[in-house]
Amino acid sequence: MSNNIVAVYGMLFLSLLPFSLSAQDEKLELSLEQSMDLLHKENKSLKIAGKEVDIARNEHQKLNSFWYPSVNAGGAYVHMSNPMEVKQPLDQFTGPAKDFVHSILPNDELISSILDKIGTNTLTFPLVSQNLTTIDASVTWPVFTGGKRIYASKIGKAMVALAEVNRSQEDATQQTLLITTYFGLRLGQRVVDVKEETFLSLKTHYEQALKLEQNGMINRAERLFAQVSMDEAKRELESARKDLGVAQQALKALLSMESEKNIYTTTPLFINEILPPLQDFKDRIPSGNYLVNQLKLQEKMAHDELQIGRSAYVPNIALFGKQTLYSHGVDKYLMPRTMVGVGFTWNIFDGLNREKRIRQAKLTGQSLTLGKEKAVTDLEVGVDKFYSQIQNALDNVKALNTTMEMSEELVRIRKKSFQEGMATSTDVVDAEVMLSKVRVAFLMAYYQYDVALINLLAVCGTPESFQQYRLDGKTEHFIFQNE
Question: 365, 307 in Cβ contact below 8 A?
Answer without folding.
Answer: no
